[in-house]
Structure formats: structure tokens, C-alpha cells
Amino acid sequence: MLKAFLAVVLFATAATAQAASPDWHARLAEAMPLLGHRNWILVVDSAYPLQTSPGIETIETSAAQLDVLRAVLASINASIQVRALIYMDAELPFIEDAEAPGASAYRSDVAGVLRNYRIESIPHEKIISTIDEAGKTFHVLVLKTNMTIPYTSVFIRLDCKYWSADQEQRLRHRMTEAAAKQSP
């Protein structure tokens, strides 16, 4: 009797977990209008850890990483509010095909997908810490893929599309000058 009960519970739990996994395309489309600067979208390999910061949402896509990356970039590029700042693991250039078959081909393929973007390389542990900290205040959407080559995750920090860092710097400068003129 106990075995039958456990089998039903396990089956129901597995069915619930599978049913609860949202379609990643739909979730991305739903999230995009809400995302702004300081939010993140991660397109990660299958071993990327499930993080527990409250703002980090992880979705299993069961899809090829470059397909997910292309869809995410297209969604960002079609948005009116955000643009992509790309970060990748600093370890990736040192992964050899002998240890991780397909690493060289992946590097070439991802470089093609990201050819119009500036890519900043950061050590994996540092970027994980950055994401964990960001997830305490901002939303982070993690899209897990079926990629099985290490250090292939693409970390996308969203920035404001219609207001650049240079514009922000000029604004702050004008504000400082105005405050200095008003001081006795």
C-alpha cells in the first residue's frame, strides 16, 4: 500500500513539475515589457546552478543554446526600452576540444551570433556572484539550455536603450555644476 501511495505521489510530483515548467518563448515575451536597465537575462549551459536569490527565475528550455540566444537577442532588439550588454566566462577561450569536444566550434558559432556586440569576459565565479547580488534587488531571467560544454553561458545585462551612459554622465555633470552655482 505504501509503495503504491509513493508511486502515485512521485508520478503526481513529476507531472506537476513538468506542467509547471512554462514555455520559455511565452515567458520571455511576457517578461520583456517589464524588464529594464539593471535586469539580466542569462542563456546558460545545462550545469548552470539553480540560484536562490529571490529575484532569480530559472526556466528549463530543453533547447539548443544558440537558438535560445538568438531568440533572446531578437526580443531585446525589438524592445523599445532595453539594449544588451554581453558578458561571458573568461574561462571559455581556454577550454580545449580534447577535454570538451565542440568547444572550438561553439566559440566560433557564438562569436558569429554576437558579432555586433562588445563582449566583456569575466571569471565565472565573479559573474555568478554578480548575478546573485543582482537577484537580491532586480529580476534575473535564467534560461537553461541543453548545452554540455562548460563555461559557455551568455550573461546579458540590460541597459536603457534610449538613454546612454554618456548622456547620464553629462546630466550628472550639469547637476553638479548647478548645485555648485547655488552654494554660497
Task: Describe the 3D structure.
The chain has 184 residues and is an alpha/beta fold. It is globular, with a radius of gyration of 20 Å. Helix 4 links the parallel strand 3 and strand 4. The chain has a single domain, classed as RbsD-like domain (RbsD-like fold, 3-Layer(aba) Sandwich), CATH 3.40.1650. It has 6 helices and 6 strands; from the N terminus they run ααββαβαβαββα. About 9% of the residues have low confidence.
Just name the CATH architecture.
3-Layer(aba) Sandwich
Major sheet description: 6 strands, mixed
CATH superfamily: RbsD-like domain
Q: Tell me the CATH topology.
A: RbsD-like fold
Neighbour order of strands in the largest sheet: 2-5-1-6-3-4
What would you say about this model in short?
By secondary structure, the protein is of the alpha/beta class. Helix content is 44%, strand content 18%. The chain is globular, with a radius of gyration of 20 Å.
Secondary structure layout:
Layout: H1 2-20, H2 24-31, E1 40-44, E2 56-60, H3 65-78, E3 82-89, H4 103-113, E4 119-122, H5 124-134, E5 140-144, E6 154-160, H6 165-182
Q: Which tags fit this structure?
A:
6-stranded mixed beta sheet, RbsD-like fold, single chain, 18% strand, 6 helices, 184 residues, alpha/beta
